[in-house]
Design goal:
two-stranded antiparallel ribbon, alpha/beta, 134 residues
Length: 134
């Protein structure tokens, strides 16, 4: 799970994105374990199936502020899937690799696969559009 807080549409959008990231982390960690890359961090942190590491990361989520850049090195590796959580509303660019885009402002023309915490999850195939946050 990669959290991008660079260009939130508004404070409420950021709150939705933070809640979605937290919900996804807990769900994915219990299912198969997961990693969370927070804004301002160089590497993702691991959350184990028994939620090892989660309390500290949950507390760090509460400290995320709008405008903090996220490392751009996150890529799908092997059997891993990137879940890109953003509060951005406008702008678009091609996704360089397949990923799920999760945000309170769904992209037009991309099917919504799931909803979580006021955000829509949309599967991008590497050629679809995703929110620009550069």
């Amino acid at each position: 799970v990669v959290l991008d807080a660079r260009l939130p549409a508004c404070e409420e959008s950021l709150d939705h994105a933070l809640s979605a990231a937290a919900s996804l982390c807990v769900h994915l960690a219990r299912t198969c374990g997961c990693e969370l890359l927070l804004p301002g961090e160089a590497r993702p942190r691991t959350i184990g199936r028994a939620l090892e590491g989660w309390p500290a990361l949950h507390a760090r989520l509460a400290l995320v502020r709008a405008g903090t850049p996220t490392a751009s090195a996150a890529r799908a590796r092997g059997d891993r899937t990137v879940v890109y959580v953003t509060a951005a509303a406008a702008g678009a660019r091609a996704a360089a690799y397949p990923c799920w885009r999760v945000g309170p402002h769904p992209l037009a023309g991309v099917v919504v696969g799931f909803d979580v915490a006021g955000c829509a999850g949309q599967l991008l195939d590497g050629g679809a559009l995703t929110a620009a946050a550069a």
